[in-house]
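User: Sequence recovery, please. Input:
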């Protein structure tokens, strides 16, 4: 059930919006789902966590330039390697 709910457009819209709007948008989605009689989906959506700024930013990159996610991952790996070298 939860996986089906997570694939819904309402959930996609929650994570596309600014993190500062997440709680309000989540409450509106829960209210709409309850009004439509889908209490199980409403319960799942009500438990969704607000994304951190970093998670939100990566999500935006994936939405707008999904082909560049590989570059982002490579940059992260490079950063980890350089930090390990600096700490050694």
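Assistant: Recovered sequence (88 residues):
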């Amino acid at each position: 059930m939860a996986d089906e709910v997570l694939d819904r457009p309402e959930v996609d819209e929650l994570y596309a919006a600014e993190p500062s709007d997440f709680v309000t948008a989540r409450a509106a989605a829960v209210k709409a789902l309850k009004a439509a009689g889908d209490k199980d989906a409403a319960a799942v959506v009500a438990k969704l966590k607000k994304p951190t700024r970093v998670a939100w930013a990566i999500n935006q990159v994936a939405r707008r330039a999904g082909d560049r996610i590989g570059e982002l991952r490579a940059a992260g790996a490079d950063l980890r390697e350089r930090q390990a070298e600096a700490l050694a």
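The first helix runs from residue 2 to 6.
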